[in-house]
Design goal:
20% strand, Nucleotidyltransferase, domain 5, five-stranded mixed sheet, 344 residues
């Protein structure tokens, strides 16, 4: 570890459809702006690794103009990641399996890299700089291209036996009538509540001629998630019913998490929550019908993320945590190997 370890970290958040980058320092301050791109996909349907690295290259060069010492990269990835190797074990929305992404980044730029799943990074950011600073037990949930979460228990990240705990979205809801999930199974909660599910329900309503408002908002005869929320703003009852059902299912899912763990804070983020600022408030209100104890009904708070993108901030926090620069107790998972990946 060198003195340069407290220099800002180039944070990268790779979601199912969007890629964000920003330079973040030890105090959690953003240096400059967040850069946003669409994730490039190859002809085989998988996210294009070379295309992602090409986008990163420009920002690595810019970061070198600001960072005086060693530049490090923190990556947040929408899928299960092996913390020790930085491998994307399973990233359903990117169609990656067992891809050594951390090694590829480190070798391409000859820089030290930390990689972890996006929901895990988001929890860490909230624990270090956000809503979870004074909480020993809370959860993160995200609604975007996918739906999932992660846990912070007894003052630390909780990854479970393999680092993959918190996959709320892959709890099965209806394996008989449900849609095929990116994880390979059928009927996961994710397939009912994530952005693509909302768009699919809107598309079905449009094709059935149930909503003139939704039909008027199509683009090349396709209904987007954003169009469903816009239709609600225009007073469309069909779009409202679609999102009401999504909220109900999220409340069932997260209510089960609260009943299981007796936590009193859930922080939510993701593209869908940004498209509808009122969504989290609705969940905070409606979830109480699915909570078992009077204490949970009284004390639980469901709040929006504390930053513009908690997963991005968490990618930086991960590097600082692995290097031992965060103040207070070590917040990393027990029993798992934590290390910076360096090119051979």
């Amino acid at each position: 570890m060198s003195a340069s370890s407290t220099e800002p970290v180039l944070a990268v958040d790779i979601g199912g459809t969007s890629l964000r980058l920003g330079l973040i320092n030890l105090e959690g301050a953003l240096i400059g702006d967040i850069a946003r791109y669409d994730v490039p996909f190859a002809s085989d349907g998988a996210a294009d690794v070379d295309g992602i690295l090409a986008i990163m290259a420009e920002h690595v060069e810019r970061a070198w103009q600001i960072v005086a010492g060693e530049l490090r990269v923190g990556v947040s990835l929408c899928g299960n990641v092996d913390l020790a190797s930085g491998d994307a074990v399973l990233a359903p929305n990117l169609h990656w399996r067992n891809l050594p992404f951390g090694k590829l980044v480190s070798e391409r730029f000859q820089l030290p890299v930390c990689v972890a799943t996006d929901v895990r990074q988001a929890v860490l950011a909230e624990a270090v700089w956000g809503a979870g600073v004074n909480e020993r037990n809370f959860a993160w949930a995200t609604v975007g291209t996918g739906y999932g979460g992660f846990l912070f228990l007894n003052g630390r990240l909780y990854g479970g036996a393999n680092g993959f705990a918190g996959n709320f979205g892959h709890i099965t809801y209806d394996e008989i009538n449900g849609h095929r999930c990116g994880c390979g199974r059928r009927g996961c909660f994710e397939t009912f509540v994530a952005g693509p599910a909302i768009a699919r329900a809107g598309q079905a309503a449009h094709e059935a001629g149930e909503s003139a408002i939704l039909s008027s908002l199509t683009n090349e005869d396709k209904v987007s998630t954003r169009a469903v929320f816009r239709a609600i703003e225009l007073g469309d009852p069909v779009a409202a019913r679609i999102v009401d059902d999504v909220i109900r299912l999220i409340c069932i899912n997260l209510g089960g998490v609260v009943n299981l763990l007796d936590i009193k804070l859930i922080v939510m983020g993701g593209g869908v929550t940004k498209a509808a600022p009122w969504l989290v408030e609705r969940i905070n209100n409606d979830i109480r019908a699915y909570l078992m104890t009077v204490e949970a009904q009284r004390d639980l708070q469901v709040v929006r993320e504390s930053t513009a993108n908690a997963a991005l901030w968490g990618a930086a926090a991960h590097v600082f945590a692995v290097e031992g620069h965060l103040s207070g107790d070590n917040k990393l998972e027990k029993g798992l190997e934590h290390r910076v990946i360096r090119a051979n």
